[in-house]
Amino acid sequence: MKKYHIITTLLIGLTLNGCGNSATSNLPEANISETAIAALSNKESFETKQTEAESTEEESSIVSTAAITSTEVIQGGPYGKISISVPNGWNYDTYPVDSDELMVGMYGIRFYPKDVTTGYIELAYTNNFGVCGTGLDEKQTTIGGNPACVGTYDNHVYWDFISFQEDYAGVVALTYYVEDWWDTYSSQVKDILNTIQFDPNIKEGSVYIYSSESEEPKIGLSVSLKKVSPAGATFVFHQYDPKAPTGELNYGEDYVIEAQKNNTWEPVPVIIENYAFNQPAYLIIPNDTSEQEICWDWLYGALKPGNYRIKKTVSDFRGTGDYDNYTLCANFLIT
Known about the structure:
Radius of gyration: 36 Å
Number of strands: 21
Order of helices and strands: HHHEEEEEEEEEHEEEEEEEEEEHEE
Low-confidence stretches: 1-49, 57-67
């Protein structure tokens, strides 16, 4: 500080006497000027660095604050991992496979403002999403760097669905009962969806896959699976038309599991040579749901990752020797 004070005093003196005193003009200006300039330059450099350091600290503080004002929400599943960043002021819920709470999709995330009582955005994975009906307007756009189709019915201010495409195919976002708060929060919804990440290479869990083989209209019956694992699953019968069967519907304990290889179905090899199933007849309740727990690891071992189907026979039984058999299949994926 003393050095800067001396140089500054010297420069002021030169300024006051430079034109009116010939003796002063004969001083070695170059040496003094170079010294003064160097000192001032060092001072400016110091002040610049100090300002830059303060600016960096401020930016670091902003980044740090931003980092703690949002939460990364992740839901994994058999087709890939979904994640978004949800800011403070928003609630979220995650739903794994078999949660049975999503409106559409196998697994996913719901998010909604904390200060609302109804309505939410549902972000989920589904392998059979489709839309139809009149009054639908669809637009192509990019969300979070990914191509997507935005669909809106009847020209209302909020969109009804977003169907992601290409690498994010299967991921959909849907709105439910958002009309009362859309004007206030729509821009934040857009910001949240712009953080979407979907990684199809990170897979977990197993899941039932719908196919036409899962339903037999002649007896008003459809089948599905839940709680799928490499060692077993719960087989679900849903009898939706009590007038369709001509007798009582029943099933036994036997089943067959097949694996999909090269677009064909092949029986999975059994791990024991001599085996047999019990032969009881379990009744399928009309217009209701029936379930059967199946543990197949004793017969097939734990299944490796892949696409499978389990086949079961259902009888429309009218009397001894008078019945029709139907085979239904429930497809599933092991990851």
